[in-house]
């Protein structure tokens, strides 16, 4: 199994600050497997999914081979240098600003011509380059003939790999090392790569501008393709360049950029001619699209899959939960019996074990959820869901560009909010970011599992599935209301690639689930660990001093504790719902992270699920579950929102979500009995 | 034999193949389509269409979800 390491964003770093001078840039169209290759090269674990927009900012990682260190950058996918999306802007910036990098251009062999457009443009940059043809296992023709042709035409190393089957990665590493070991100058004669049909006109532009210094063909070409390059990186005065370009391309009935792209496509077709590439390389599973994309059948399949997911999560996860629950209690009893010091024993058992152990009880369900989400992402099914549910988002007022961030929200809201940067329209970006806190993240899942079982012992899976659908409905309604009253404007238009359907059970999926579970446990160890210690201390001390561990088991003694006082200050807010002060304390801690809410319950009520369940009626459990589902997810989300939408809208989001959560909880508590029991 | 219908992509029949005849779009959408190789003479198969007009099309470059507003500006002839 690949060694998993945490990863880092490079957004605020300057490329070149890293220790290694060997910089490898992974560049390519969206959804070509760059992140997977990045993980295989570096041993990191950046998110991989079978839909575009997953990598919204560059990631960096290192691999060391034969004593040489190489810094690898996984850049967001883009189609070409005239692409003006936010993802392309960040990738292009890294390419332009990197000093002497090695570009590893990853392309999907199933869509050669589209992917080779970027390859042709990259070749004109005159940088060291390797071409990697990914998914070679999915085609039925002679890949060697293709690689030899491209190698001889483009004069660069060309390799076939299957990242998903981890084939060809060793060869890629060796080729990367070989490229850096080559002492000779990497600059090739760009004349070979000049698109013949427009080369003359581009040279004319260069000649007309060539009054100050010698100009490179690539500088002129890039200035014509990319406005950002012309503005920030080219040596030309913008006005003069535009004037000359207009003059040279006079009479053209299409935009110059389109002419350049068309010419490159013509050359690509000529590059590939005679190779006998058979066009049967689409996934054999694509016939399923007839059902998955149907607006009626597709929705039924989606609903059944959602229900089935939660059913499996409960039925299978529940078995392990009972074992872990029993194990935590036995361990607690053993520790208490073997430690003579009551305070130390209480710290370990009533504090750390109760707080952290109570979250770990739900680890099986969380693991199964990660696995199911991973299967949906990597099979390409989630993009089908985007299509069949688009009508709801369109009516709410945003385009498909908002989908990727919303989907990422089911994992964690923080990166999801940051990923709204890929949305070009500022109003759409803001409404999407403000709606993401309502998307139920994985940290809220154990809470839904716990309280779902209390609401209905017979159908907890349906309760949790309902809670998820409610979270989506609230997010979409929030988008609608914000668009209607605060962020009016035209919807942006969408074209999104529908990826091939593929069988998702592979090492990549298991590595990713392993990394997510590891992160989940790490998160508990870090933030939650400190939180449970603080809560334990607040529970056994009063304003006058130490009360002792007995306060955790004696409700009258607990009333003297600082934790009780803390909850009592704001108890009036939740008076209509009649929640116990301990619940309110847990909610306060849940504001820091949602895992801490569960940990706090473990400390304040003990880890015995049966005893905890006795504290709630189905209605009170439902009202509390919905409050937790809807109120501010965590401090991290608040900071992410502040960064993306500003202080004013972050405060709005907090007030809005708290008010909404309170109203829903109140209505359910007051009238839920009527609905549930008639 | 070609039947010169010159219909909009947004009106095309699901399950049928067409050839792109002309593109009447603004510059940024033209560039967007050019990049994914949806240009004149490219063959498009209509895979599905929602009531909202959102479509799934298949081209040599892959399968794409395409907005109804963009689909209105793509004119086709039958393959």
Please describe the structure with a list of short key phrases separated by commas or semicolons.
heterodimer; A: 678 residues; alpha/beta; Rossmann fold; seven-stranded mixed beta sheet; two-stranded antiparallel ribbon; disordered N terminus; B: 79 residues; alpha+beta; six-stranded antiparallel beta sheet; 2 helices; globular
Draw up the topology in text.
The complex is a heterodimer of chains A (678) and B (79).
Chain A: E1 8-9, E2 22-27, H1 34-42, E3 59-65, E4 68-74, H2 86-97, E5 102-108, H3 112-123, E6 128-134, H4 143-154, E7 158-160, H5 169-181, H6 196-209, H7 217-225, H8 227-232, H9 238-248, H10 256-272, H11 289-292, H12 297-338, H13 342-360, H14 363-379, H15 381-396, H16 403-408, H17 413-418, H18 426-435, H19 445-455, H20 460-485, E8 495-498, H21 507-540, E9 541-542, E10 545-546, H22 555-558, H23 562-569, H24 581-590, H25 594-605, H26 609-614, H27 618-630, H28 635-645, H29 647-677
Parallel strand pairs in A: 2-4, 2-5, 5-6, 6-7
Antiparallel strand pairs in A: 1-3, 3-4, 9-10
Helix pairs in contact in A: 3-10, 6-9, 12-13, 12-14, 12-20, 13-21, 13-25, 14-21, 15-20, 18-20, 19-20, 19-27, 21-25, 23-24, 24-25, 27-29, 28-29
Chain B: E1 7-8, E2 17-23, H1 27-35, E3 43-49, E4 55-59, E5 62-66, H2 68-72, E6 74-78
Antiparallel strand pairs in B: 1-6, 2-3, 2-6, 3-4, 4-5
């Amino acid at each position: 199994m690949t060694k998993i390491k945490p990863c880092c964003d490079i957004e605020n770093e300057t490329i070149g600050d890293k220790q290694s001078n060997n910089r490898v840039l992974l560049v390519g169209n969206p959804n070509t497997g760059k992140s997977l290759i990045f993980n295989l090269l570096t041993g990191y674990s950046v998110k991989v999914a079978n839909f575009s927009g997953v990598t919204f900012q560059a990631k960096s990682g290192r691999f060391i081979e034969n004593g040489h260190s190489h810094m690898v950058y996984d850049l967001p996918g883009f189609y070409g240098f005239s692409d003006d999306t936010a993802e392309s802007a960040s990738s292009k910036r890294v390419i332009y600003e990197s000093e002497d990098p090695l570009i590893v251009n990853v392309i999907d062999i199933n869509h050669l011509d589209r992917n080779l457009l970027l390859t042709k443009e990259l070749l004109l940059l005159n940088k060291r380059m390797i071409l990697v043809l990914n998914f070679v296992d999915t085609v039925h023709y002679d890949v060697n003939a293709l690689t030899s042709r491209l190698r001889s035409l483009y004069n660069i190393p060309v390799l076939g790999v299957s990242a998903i089957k981890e084939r060809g990665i060793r060869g890629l590493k060796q080729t990367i090392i070989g490229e850096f070991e080559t002492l000779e100058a990497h600059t090739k004669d760009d004349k070979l790569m000049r698109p013949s049909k427009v080369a003359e006109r581009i040279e004319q532009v260069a000649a007309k501008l060539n009054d100050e210094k010698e100009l490179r063909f690539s500088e002129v070409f890039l200035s014509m393709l990319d406005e950002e390059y012309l503005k920030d990186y080219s040596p030309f005065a913008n006005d003069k360049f535009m004037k000359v370009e207009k003059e040279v391309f006079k009479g053209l009935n299409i935009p110059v950029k389109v002419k350049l792209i068309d010419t490159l496509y013509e050359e690509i077709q000529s590059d590939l001619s005679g190779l006998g590439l058979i066009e049967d390389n689409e996934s054999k599973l694509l016939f399923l699209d007839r059902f998955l994309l149907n607006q009626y059948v597709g929705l039924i399949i989606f609903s059944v899959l959602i229900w089935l997911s939660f059913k499996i999560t409960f039925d299978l996860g529940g078995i392990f939960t009972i074992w872990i629950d029993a194990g935590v209690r036995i361990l607690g009893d053993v520790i208490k019996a073997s430690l003579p010091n009551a305070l130390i024993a209480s710290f370990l058992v009533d504090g750390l074990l109760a707080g952290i152990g109570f979250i770990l009880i739900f680890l099986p369900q969380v693991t199964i959820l990660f696995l199911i989400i991973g299967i949906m992402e990597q099979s390409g099914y989630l993009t089908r869901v985007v299509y069949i549910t688009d009508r709801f988002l369109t009516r709410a007022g945003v385009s498909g560009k908002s989908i990727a961030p919303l989907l990422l929200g089911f994992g964690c809201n923080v990166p999801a909010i940051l990923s709204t940067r890929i949305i070009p329209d500022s109003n759409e970006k803001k409404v999407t970011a403000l709606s993401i806190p309502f998307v139920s993240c994985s940290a809220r899942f154990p809470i839904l599992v716990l309280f779902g079982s209390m609401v209905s012992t017979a159908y907890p899976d349906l309760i949790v599935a309902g809670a998820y659908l409610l979270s989506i409905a609230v997010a979409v309604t929030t988008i609608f209301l914000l668009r209607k009253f605060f962020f009016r404007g035209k919807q942006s238009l969408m074209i999104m690639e529908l990826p091939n359907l593929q069988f998702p059970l592979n090492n990549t999926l298991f590595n990713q689930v392993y990394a997510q579970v590891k992160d989940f446990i790490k998160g508990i160890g870090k933030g939650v660990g400190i939180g449970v210690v603080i809560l334990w201390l607040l529970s056994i001390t009063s304003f006058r001093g130490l009360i002792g561990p007995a306060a955790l088991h004696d409700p009258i003694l607990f009333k003297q504790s600082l934790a009780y006082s803390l909850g009592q200050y704001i108890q009036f807010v939740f008076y209509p719902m009649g929640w116990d002060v301990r619940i309110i304390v847990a909610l306060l801690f849940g504001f820091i992270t949602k895992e801490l809410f569960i940990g706090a319950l473990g400390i304040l009520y003990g880890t015995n699920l049966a005893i905890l369940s006795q504290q709630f009626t189905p209605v009170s459990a439902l009202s509390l579950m919905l409050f937790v589902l809807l109120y501010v997810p965590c401090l991290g989300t608040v900071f992410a929102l502040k960064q993306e939408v500003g202080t004013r809208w972050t405060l709005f989001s907090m007030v809005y979500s708290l008010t909404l959560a309170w109203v829903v909880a109140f209505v359910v508590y007051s009238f839920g009995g009527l609905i549930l029991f008639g | 034999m070609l039947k010169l219908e010159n219909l909009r992509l947004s009106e095309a029949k699901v399950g049928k193949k067409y050839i792109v005849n002309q593109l009447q779009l603004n510059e940024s959408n033209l560039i967007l389509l050019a990049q994914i190789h949806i240009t004149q003479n490219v063959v498009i198969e209509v895979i599905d269409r929602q009531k909202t007009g959102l479509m799934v099309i298949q081209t040599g470059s892959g399968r794409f979800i395409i907005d109804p507003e963009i689909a209105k500006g793509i004119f086709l002839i039958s393959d």
